[in-house]
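Thread: Newbie trying to understand structure tokens

Hi all, I'm a second-year student working on a class project, and my supervisor (Dr. K.) asked me to get a predicted structure for one chain before our next meeting. I've only ever worked with sequences, so writing a 3D structure as a token string is new to me. If someone could post the tokens and maybe explain what I'm looking at, I'd be very grateful. Here's the chain:
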Amino acid sequence: MAGGALAEFLYGLATYAVLGRLEAIAAKASWILWSNFKDRRGLEVVARRGDDVTRAVDAQMEEYIYSALRGAFEGGVLIAEEGGVYRWGDERYVFVLDPLDGSLNYSLGIPAFTISIAAGHNRTGKLDDLEYAVLAVPPTGDVYSLGPGSSPTKNGTPLKRSERSMNVAFVAMGESVPPEVYSLISSMGLKGRSLGCSSYELLLTGLGAAVGFADLRGKLRMLDVAAALLLGRALGMEYIILGDYSLEARGISLLAGTREFVDGLRRGLGGGG
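---
Reply by user tm_fold:
Sure, no problem. This is what the structure looks like when written as tokens:
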């Protein structure tokens, strides 16, 4: 085997190994989380930060995934929802984790929540560092994943964006959202929907189940959406982040979907062409 071909083969093996470990961690965590949900465990509030609350299940899932990552990777930096930043070993990898996106849904008994893990080599601390994405959906048992140079998959089967024409857009509601957002979406002939789980909404947008996604509340964190953005981009989804592109970013807003949706909403809100 020639040198170039050998290097490519070894790179492929390394990529497969990293993605496989992340998929295995997410799949096991998904099973644990779904078991907790069915038994209504972990609902008690253990901490409060402004409007955000931490429930026992949030802390439990973050601790489980952190321990699993430490066991699977010799060195890393984990940016997580509850505990902030964890470091170990040579810090060669960076991981961005939301152990339970859709925590309010979980607490209300609504089966719409995910586990989101994105990863890459630790270089700049920006979104461009991320090369791997794993999004587990406990209510369905599905694991969506992506590695560098590969196509996104669902449970190991390659995914493609739907070619069907949809008239749905996911839009977050709140006092900080400009009211014209809703009228603009309506003027596009679209129906607004919200699942209360940003990563799942973005995944469905990437898959073509919705035309677009708009969250202009200025409340998203990069860890909420990083894995879904990587998966969506690989499926042809366009997006614009309004705010910081760093992996520790908080208070961002986001437009995503077809180019027509993103550009149309941006122009309508005075963002130019």
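A couple of things are worth pointing out once you decode it. The radius of gyration is 19 Å. Residues 5-13 have pLDDT under 50 and may be disordered. Feel free to ask follow-ups in this thread.
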